[in-house]
Amino acid sequence: MASTAYSRPSKPPGPAPGDRRAPRLAKELGRIEPKKLGIGLVAGCCLALLTYLSFARLFAIYSPVFESTSLVMKNAPPANYTKTPGAEAQPVQQKSQVEEEKEVPDAETDPKMSNLPEATKTEDEEEATVTKPSGGVAEAKITCDENGVDEGFPYARPPVCELAGDIRISPKEKTMFFVNPSGAGPFDANGEKKIRPYARKDDFLLPGVVEVTVKSVPSPAAAPACTRRHGVPAVVFSVAGYTDNFFHDNTDVLIPLFLTASHLKGEVQLLITNFKPWWVRKFTPLLRKLSNYEVINFDEDQGVHCFEAGHLGLYRDRDLIISPHPTRNPRNYSMVDYNRFLRRAFGLPRDAPAALGEETGKKPAMLIIERKGTRKLLNLREVAALCEELGFAVSVAEAGADVRGFAERVNAADVLLAVHGAGLTNQVFLPTGAVMVQIVPWGKMDWMATNFYGQPARDMRLRYVEYYVSEEETTLKDKYPRDHYVFKNPQAIHAQGWPALAEIVMKQDVMVNVTRFKPFLLKALDELQE
Fold this sequence. Notes:
disordered N terminus
């Protein structure tokens, strides 16, 4: 939290301590009647008491008592500070105007962050933090999770650093100044630790991610002065990379952000690098659910933001998977928790699918996600007609930019059906216990189908049905002869890397054999009866 630098008055109002009344005052008092004198003495005592209380309150509010508080005051703007162009001087952090609209978070999780002080809860407490003397800033501490290797999973995790103490973030300098008298920590010879805070360690992507430096400095004097103080932890992260692909929006930003910050119950300040205004607008309901404060554009902000705790980077697990982990997930969050978070952020009403036979004449709702680019379901209308014949109430829609609108459509469904692709990420909006049907294209796609969508569905407590197309059901048969390795040894495509996979497997379309597909649809019906 922050405080403008207040200075105590050089002397209290009224006569100076050395000024004394003339001796004749005592003589004059002797002429006053005793009754009047008693009344006067009572009135004088009351006035003196009120004066004392007023000054005591003034002193308690404005006086920098402890040395640490004095240091804080020195680094805050003076009382007559004038805002310079591009500089932000807002000593008290303001909450988002929509805070009142947010639901009270679940009480299931620990409201305290590991190794971080408890976040402030109310404006009154924030004001108290700003103005009242304290025991000083927390002891300087930094820990970085560098263990990015995950056996059996090809994508490494980037490092994440967690800090506590006197932290001063200067977006203009792309630097987090860390007051660290001992100099201890994971720093190089220059006392620096550089991180690109995007939650996917991809050598192709990382050069495009803003690099942020944690710089260890020996004293507050070696760091820039604060223009704004925050009484909550900071989380600095990037929305570069593959964002605007709904799969990567979740796997590379939203789920890691949930994993890193949700236990703070909104008392956290988000600072976003590679800032994309349209992306922030698109996911505003989720960002507001995670933070009570307006996000800070790390690319344009000119101030120096001061915190006592924070993260640089985001913790992540596998794609659309959250597993228990002692450091990355010490509170044992799951994808069920994430789904619940999404439903509440978007105001989605259904937590469970309809039970067959519960309402007479009511059909289970099926949503088929239509793809217009690659991996199209060429006989979608025929498949939809078969589903209607089997007893589903079918609707067809294409996922678009209106996340909330499409989330409402998915949440209204009991069964979600789609060809493998980012659209299946919308399973996160299904009610717990609903059914997801994945049509898997040709090309030895079992690992990707299972790890990207199948296992996540199970972790979300959805019922999962998958259908693998045959070589007769793919348009690849019109492009390659049957003795080509595409059919004889499709694993060879994967051995060539992502470019070959994207060019061959990801560009096919499918036309399912409805006779062969029918038992899988019946299985989806059966799952709803269990």
